[in-house]
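Teaching assistant here, posting this on the class forum so everyone can see the example we discussed in section. The complex has two components, and the goal was to see what a joint structure prediction looks like when all of them are supplied at once.
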Amino acid sequence: MTTTPRPTGPPARHSNAAVAALLVPLVVGTAVAVALGVFARMHDPTGHSIDVPGFSSTLAVKTWLTTLAAALAIVQVVTASGMWGRLGLADATWTAPVHRWSGRLAVAATIPVVVHCVYAIGFESASTRVLVHSLLGCFFFGAFVAKMLALPRGNLPGWSLPVLGGLVTVALIALWLTSALWYFDTHGVGT
Amino acid sequence: MSGKTPYLTLAVLAVFFAVMVAIEGAAASDDGGGGGDHPSEYGSFAEIAEIAEIAGETW
């Protein structure tokens, strides 16, 4: 793996070319979000759940995986702030690798959750919370893909990565609020 | 992060996604689809309906 240059702050790039460089990541990310939503809405949900030893239900497994991802999202915020010279962590060398790996683990933890949501339950709109959760799930993966595709591009506006990363984090926390917190509130904190 | 690492990350996560879809698909087809009577298939709808009833919500 190549050594990653540490960001020192948002560079002052506001040209049309810089904004245009965001186009492909945003289009692909949007396509991913729409594809997830359309598939979840159009196919017949299997209604299937898989038993996992140590957990009372599939929902409990999903709840704890989402909670793990939300905790890692907080790590993301702290390490990103450090990478951008905030929180007195400008000289810390651990922030970038911790940021990368906590992000990978967070998204990896959400994948079994979204697969079950999309495949077994589908896009639901029976209540406001469920509709918001369904929309957020699609948005989260679209925003994540957009951020991943934007990262290697060197000619982006300086605000783009913090904004994309912030959107991914906010979406993940909101997903937790509309699912895991609701589960804990209605079913109690347990496995 | 620079270079191709984000693309590799996306590719690995996409493979993981595909594996999970395969597992879900295999588990569902083993049971003949949703609503089966295997003890492990008291599926998400039943769970959700039960919990939603507690919460006073409609799914």
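For the discussion questions: The helical segments of chain A are 16-20, 23-42, 58-83, 95-121, 128-150, 160-177, 180-187. The longest helix of chain A spans residues 95-121. Think about how each of these relates to the inputs above.
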